[in-house]
Amino acid sequence: MPEFLSWLVEPLTYSFMQRSLLAAVLVGIVCALVGTYIVLRGMAFFGDALAHAILPGVAAGYLVGGGTYLTVFWWALGAAVLASLGIGAVSRGTRLREDTAIGIIFAGTFALGIAMISSIRSYAVDLSHFLFGNVLGVSNSDLLLTAGFGLLVIVVIVAFYKEFMVLSFDPVLAATLRLPRRWLENLLLVLIAIAIVVALQTVGVALMVAMLVTPAATAFLLTKRLPRMMTLAALIAALSGIIGLYLSFYIGIASGAAIVLTCTAIFLLVWLGQTLKTNSQN
Amino acid sequence: MDFRKIGLMIFGFAAFLLSACAAQDEPSWKIGVVATTNIVGDVVAQIGGEHVELTVMLPVDADPHSFQPTPQDLVAVENADIVFVNGLDLEEFLAEMVENVGGEDNIVSVSEEVATIEFSGGHDDHEEGEEHDDHEEGEEHEEHEHSGADPHVWMDPNNVKIWTDNIATALSTSDPDNAATYVANAEAYNLELDELDEWAQSELAQLASENRVLVTDHEALGYFAEHYGFEIIGTILPGSSTLAEPSASELAALEDLVVDFGVPAIFVGTTVNPNLAQRVADDTGVQLVPLYTGSLSDADGPAATYLEMMRYNVGAIVEALQ
Fold first, then answer.
1. Which of B57, B61, B242, B251 is the best substitution to test chain A (most A C-beta atoms within 10 A)?
2. Which residue, A85, B233, B240, B274, has most beta carbons within 10 Å?
3. What CATH number does residue A23 fall under?
4. Rg for chain A (alpha carbons), in Å?
5. B260/chain A closest Cα distance in angstroms
6. Does B248 sit within 8 Å of A20, measured CB to CB?
């Protein structure tokens, strides 16, 4: 047993691993909570699109702020909000369905981001850095910001828990209660945007949708009750972050990919377990 | 009928213009030269002087590993008489670019004939050099066999002397009238390189042998270490290119090495994202020292030419490891 214990403790002797683990757990929880609504409302494509749509904001943030995380954060957030409003405007203003509108805005903003980055030509804004992130490079101040904004998301979700629930499960009741639907939906979009920007450094743009969707989807298989689903999703995400980083430490694979692969493996295991259970019951 | 006359007049006028241009351009004709990295560009400028019209492709602080040429760059390459590249797969965009502009007739790898060293351990550079010579004839098939060679040859001034010879030869072939100038410029520059080498040797002699250890961002200092007797004990990014990311285990192993060896500094090139190196430096309590390895500095910076760049680097290394 002590061998196993030292196996567990060894990565923790490195402070970059401590920071990475904390960041992965924090980001995992925030994304999973927001992700619960994404899964319930069928917004996975929207989430993926929003993750890509922040790229021009990130590039602009680097240009303006010279690489300070906070500047990048605000610009990315601005880009995300603009993109989500743009998607709404296109789908409302034309006969096009929402997924088509998402496709147009998402590819357009992503292309704008790539164009901006290609004009800068410096290491600070190389594309792969944003596409795949690097949780191992998280600094103490990054961690503080992540924690701060993560906490903000959690507080808002708790505060508007009932409203979001009614909105997601019972649109008729929401109308009867005269909930400010448009306002709440926009608030949810902003929360998704914050979660995405917070997760940018951990998994990057390309794998973001997995953090948003996979843990929440796994929890959805396990329970039908919203509070339990949220707790389970947060637990699964936190666990995936820890297991993924240990995998990265001991097997030597890229950390973001390791975290996402762990999420996926847990989903597959749960699905398999569910299938076996239903089959044995029949 | 009138159209024919007009056509004839236009033709005649165009022919007159063309001949006039040609006649006018004759005395001030320059070789059109493109250089990929600004380090190669600086050496080309030293040898070509006012006889070449030089376009340098990579801007200051751009990373040669990840650089992507713009359409204008391709136009410049297409129109150039000679394109000087570092070679040895430093410019990862090169193969695609050559394909784009159709053929590699005008591309000259300045590192041709340099005795290359391999990455990861193998310091048998002598053998490697001979092998290189053997393959000289079958140039088309070389690319794969040399994928393991370290492309950062310029970190040893003696290799840059080979560059100057290659550049002088290529310029003389394209512009035989000025061949004597190119050869003379190359000889003069080689003397400066010898001087630089001697100065570096004497500066670095201040460092005790136990302090001659380097931790760098990526494997950019292989030739420097080989020539001046340093050991590279670790790199932040695994391997030869800046395009690879380390895993958690690799980063942990590096921090162990830094602590075990008591390395006082980590050296980062100006073309590489210092984020990870900064974290390792913070964690292990060592200094982060910037070096110019992949790019020169601005004209008013401390490393505006190759010679200044090397002097700056040697100075920074001596100061950090003393």
1. B251
2. B240
3. 1.10.3470.10
4. 19
5. 14
6. yes
